[in-house]
Amino acid sequence: MYKSEQLARSIRALIENGSWQAHSKLPSLREQVQRSGFSLMTVLNAYQELEAQGLVYSKEKSGYFVAGNLATQALAHHPETKLNAHIEINSQVFNYLKATQDEEIVPLGSAFPCSDLLYNAKLMQIIAQHAKRKRSYLNSDSMPPGNLELRKIIASRYSLQGIPTDANDIVITSGALEALNLSLQALTQAGDYILLQQNIFYGAWQAAERLGLKVITIPEHPQHGFDLVSFDAALNKYPIKVCWLMLNSHNPIGFTVSNEIKFQIAKLLHEHQVYLIEDDVYQELYYGAQKPLPMKYFDQHNYVLHCSSFSKTIGMGTRIGWVHVGKFSNAIQHLQMMSTLSASTLVQHALVDFLPSHHYEKHLRQLRLQLEHNKQVFYQFLKAHLSTQCEIYYYSSGYFLWVKLPEHVDSMSLYRQLLEYKIAIAPSSLFRLNTLTQNFIRINCSFNLNERIQQALAQLICCIQQAINHRSDSR
Amino acid sequence: MYKSEQLARSIRALIENGSWQAHSKLPSLREQVQRSGFSLMTVLNAYQELEAQGLVYSKEKSGYFVAGNLATQALAHHPETKLNAHIEINSQVFNYLKATQDEEIVPLGSAFPCSDLLYNAKLMQIIAQHAKRKRSYLNSDSMPPGNLELRKIIASRYSLQGIPTDANDIVITSGALEALNLSLQALTQAGDYILLQQNIFYGAWQAAERLGLKVITIPEHPQHGFDLVSFDAALNKYPIKVCWLMLNSHNPIGFTVSNEIKFQIAKLLHEHQVYLIEDDVYQELYYGAQKPLPMKYFDQHNYVLHCSSFSKTIGMGTRIGWVHVGKFSNAIQHLQMMSTLSASTLVQHALVDFLPSHHYEKHLRQLRLQLEHNKQVFYQFLKAHLSTQCEIYYYSSGYFLWVKLPEHVDSMSLYRQLLEYKIAIAPSSLFRLNTLTQNFIRINCSFNLNERIQQALAQLICCIQQAINHRSDSR
C-alpha cells in the first residue's frame, strides 16, 4: 500500500466514525506533515484522494474540509414501515441471474468478488493433499452439524471477537444461502410476519415468498444506515416473529451500522422477543483495523442467528457456510437432514488445515487491500465521468458501489439495455419492492480496471447519460 | 469371481425373472455339468450356495428345486390404499440419524455402503490435480443447472440406456436428496395429494410433511414388488398430483420391478396425467448383466423426473446428484437458486475427467462384486443363526437385507436395545407409518464380515431371540 493510501485510510476512519464532523477543517498540509511524519507530497496525495472520493472538499486558500455525510445524500428517508403481504421478486431475480451467467458478460452485477482475488494457491494445495487421503471419504462428517474440527475453528473465531462460542453452537451449511434459508424455515410458519430492511439481498425476498410470509419493511436511516425509530414502530405495530437484517457492509447499499445502534437493536429484540437472522457474509471484507462486530456480540438473550460463509473470501464454489444457531441447533440440523444432508466433506477437511494457518489471515489481508484499491479506482473513474446528476455512495468496506440515478431513469431498462452490450449491472428492483422508485444500481467493483472493464464502465456511463438526456429531450 | 458364483448368479437370474417357477426341479448335477461345462464340484458349490440363500431347496434322492418366491413370504399383501393426511415421521428419523452418527456405533442401520468400498484412489488423484488448477475457482459452474460437461456426460449415460437425453435435461444438485426435494417442491403446493409406496425412503415422508402434502400409500405387491391394481385404484380415487416411487433396488425392501410393470405404470401416469418423481439412487448397484431400466425409459410423455447421484457409488461426501428434469428445468433451477445455488464446483470438474475414463466402470464393476459377495456372506450368516421365526428377504442387487421378525417383536424396541450395545439397525418405522405393524428391520450388509461386524450380528441375533422368547415366556 502506498503511504498516501495509508494516510487517507486513517483519515477516512476518523471521518466515518464521527471523530471528525462534517464541514470541520482538516489539519493543514504542513500540520499533517508534522503529525504524520510523511512527506508533503504524500499528504497532498492523500488529501486529493479523499477529495476524489468525495469525503473531503477543498476551499481555495482555506484548505480541506470534511464533506457532509455521504449517507445523508445517499438515502432518502421514508420513515414509514410497509406491509407487503405478497412478494413477487422471485421470477425477476431468476431471469436476472440466468441472464448474467454467460461468461462473455462483464459481471458488474455480480454479488461475488472477482474470482481471481479469491484464488488461494495454498488452500488448493491443501485440498489436493486431502484428496490423496482416504479419510476424506469417511461418512462421519457428512451429517449435520458438520465437521467438528471446522466447527471448533469457526467457534474460536467468534470467541476471539468477544463472543463466547462453542463448536455446538455452529452448524455447517452449503453456503450462507442455506444457512439463512434453514434459519428462516426453522423460525417461521406460513403467514408469519417477518421484518426486512427496505433494500436487502434478494435471497430474503425469495425466502419470504417461498415460505408464504408477510413482510414488513423499514427504510434505511439516511445517516446511520439503520432506522431505530422505524424499527421500534414496526415491532410495536405488527406481530413480527423474525427480522432478517444486514448491518455490516449492507448489500446492496454498503453501510455498516454503529455499535451503539446494534446495542439498541439487541435491546429491542429482547424487549419484543423477536428473533434476528443476521446476514453477515461480508464480515471479513472491512477496510479499517477492526472487524465490525456482528449483532451476535450484543445478543445477551440468544435472539440472534448469525449466518456467514467462506464464499466471499475463498470462493463461492467451496459452498461452505455456517450458522451460529443459538438454541435452534436441533431444528436447523433437522431441516438440513431433510434437504441437503451436508456440505462437501473434502472441503471441510481442507479448511480445517487451512484456516488456522497464517495463510488465511494473509489471504484476507491481501484481499481487503485489493478490494479497497479496486473500489477506489472504480469510484474515481465513475466520479470523473458519470453525470453529476448521479450520486455515488462510497462506504469503506466490501466491493459494491450503490449509485443513485436521476429519478426518471429506470434501472431495469438500463439493465436490459446494457445486457445487449454484454454488460450486467444489478438494478435496484432486485433488492426492493416495485412500489418504490427504481433509480438505483449496484456495481461490483472488485475487478481490476483493465481495458475490458473500463470499456464496460464507459458504456454504462454512456447509457446512463442517454437515459438522462432522453428525458431532457422529451420535455 | 469363482466359477460357482458365476453359475449361481445365472441360475438366480432365471429364478428371479420367473423363467424357473417355484418348486420346479433344477437340472440334475450331471445335466448341469454337461450344460455349463463346469466341473461337478463347481456345480455342487453353486447349488449349495443357492440353497444357503434360500433360493432352492433339496429333497433327498430327488435333487434341487426352486424355492417358493421369496417375496411371497416377504410381503404380506394389504391391497387397500391409505390416506395419511398428517405425517409425523420427521422427529423420529432425526433422532435415529443423530443416534447413529457416533463413529463407535456399528452402522448396520446406515443407508450408505461401507465407505471403504467407495474409496477410489483414481478419483481422488483427479480431484487433487484439479485442486491445483485455478479453473476450479471459476464461477461459471456455480449456478444452476451446473457444469455443462458433467451434464453432457450424465446425459450420454442415459442415451446409452436408450433414453435420448440432452445436457439441458439435467440439473446438477447437492446429492439426490436435493434432487428429490426440489422436484417435489416444483411439482406441488401445500394440500396436494402425493402417492408413495407403503414402505419407502424416509426422505419422502419428511418432504411430504415439510411441504404439507396429503399422502396416499399403496402396498407392495407380494410377488412383483409393485401393485398395479392398488396403484390404478388410488389414481382413480384421489386427485393425486405426484407419485414418488422407487422401482429399482427398492429401499428398504430391495426388490426391482419388472419392465412390463414399469411400462404399465408409465401408461397409467399418462392416462391420469400424474407426475412421477423416481428415486433411482441404487441404479448402478445391480448384480446381473444389465442395468435395470428406469421409469424414464418408458416415459413417452414426459411425466417422469428421474433422480440419482454418485453418493452410493463414489461416496456420500461428494454431494453430487442430479435430476432428469423433463419440462421442469426452469422451475427446479429457480428453486435451487433460492436454496443452495450449486454443488461443489471442484468435484464437478473432477467428475468430468473421472467419469468417462474406464476407471469409473472398473470401480463400479468391483463395487458390485464386493457388494454381492458381502451381501451373500451376511445372508448366509443370518440364515444359519437367526431364529427360523424370522424371514430374510434377499434380492440380487444393492446391499440391504429386509428382515421380517415375528409380529410381536417391535423393531423400535430392538433398535433401542441394540443402540446400548453400540449397534445401529434401521427399524421399519423409519419407512412406514405407525399404523402398520413394525416387525421389520433393514440391515446394511455392505461390510466385510470382520470380527467387529460378526459380533454385532451375533448380538443382533441374540437380542431378536430374547425378544421372541420374551413373548413365549409371558404366555
Automatic annotation (TrEMBL), chains A, B:
Signal peptide: none annotated. Residues 1-69 form the HTH gntR-type domain. One of its GO terms (molecular function) is pyridoxal phosphate binding. InterPro entries: Aminotransferase_I/II_large, HTH_trans_reg/aminotransferase, PyrdxlP-dep_Trfase, PyrdxlP-dep_Trfase_major, PyrdxlP-dep_Trfase_small, Tscrpt_reg_HTH_GntR, WH-like_DNA-bd_sf, WH_DNA-bd_sf. PROSITE patterns: HTH_GNTR (PS50949). It comes from the Bacteria. Keywords: DNA-binding, Pyridoxal phosphate, Transcription, Transcription regulation. It holds the Pfam family GntR. The keyword Lyase does not apply. In the C-terminal section; belongs to the class-I pyridoxal-phosphate-dependent aminotransferase family. This is HTH gntR-type domain-containing protein. It comes from Acinetobacter brisouii CIP 110357.
